[in-house]
Amino acid sequence: MPFAELSGLVAALCWTISSLLAPKLIQRFGTMRFNTFRIVTASAILLFISVITHRFDPSLWAHKNSIMLSGILGIFLGDTCLFSAVHRLGPRRAGILFATNAPIAILLSWLFLNESLTLWQLFACALVLIGVVIAILFGKRQQTHDWEQTKGRLSVGILMALGGALGQASGALLSKPALLDGADPIAVSALRVSTAAIALILAYGLYYRHHLPVSATPFQNLTSKDFMGLATIAVVGMVIGMSVLVWGIGHADVGLVTTLSATVPVLILPGLWITTRQRPSGGAWLGASLVVMGAALIILH
Known about the structure:
This protein has 301 residues and is mostly helical. It has one domain (3-300). The chain is 78% helix and 0% strand. It has helices at 3-29, 31-52, 58-61, 64-89, 91-98, 101-112, 119-138, 154-180, 185-206, 224-251, 254-261, 264-276, 282-300.
């Protein structure tokens, strides 16, 4: 298999690593402060890359409104909901729920783009749903690590993860016309992430910095290690992961690359095994496998 096609797996590995690094930092920063600093860091890097390599062109600006709205829905709202779910549910369950963005994208396409739903797609969506239910109900048996414990109400965590998946799916649909029109994918990402960064700065500055969680560490007590960890997550997950995926889509089969990038729910299990020293339950493996199979059928069909 060419390296270009393996790029989807590299992207999934990047997102898995960032998910495993996130919980402790979210606890120290608080979800909104964590996401604001992370997205601002990624935005600065993507803008720098786009400017020095001259990636901004007229086709990008022709779709600027839809791309900016994509950034608001997919990153400002979607990522904030996702990392709130990671904090509440842990990386495994949040990752499983976030993988529902594939069937959600199909549903949105059916509702707003008049695309038809085939029996095969409905079967694939059912696989994802069954996998999610199994992973949530049977995936944490005999697991005592803090990442498998629910913080707050389970229903709120589930809604946050599904909100993140909805934001990601709707953001992807909104950015699609610009990419089809020939806009540079990295420039599109830079505009999306920068729009989200501005929105996060405003939301954090006007409201959230005055309403930080009690458990969050005061700013003056955050260490250089904390900021290095946050920068690592921004670079690995948002800059490298996204850029490698975009490069792979441009040089290999789109369906295969995207399918490999959807393997996060399975990849995260051995990562959790290594990190927590606790073997994931059979329900976690079965549920994650069904989710990935369903997502693969949706993407490849």
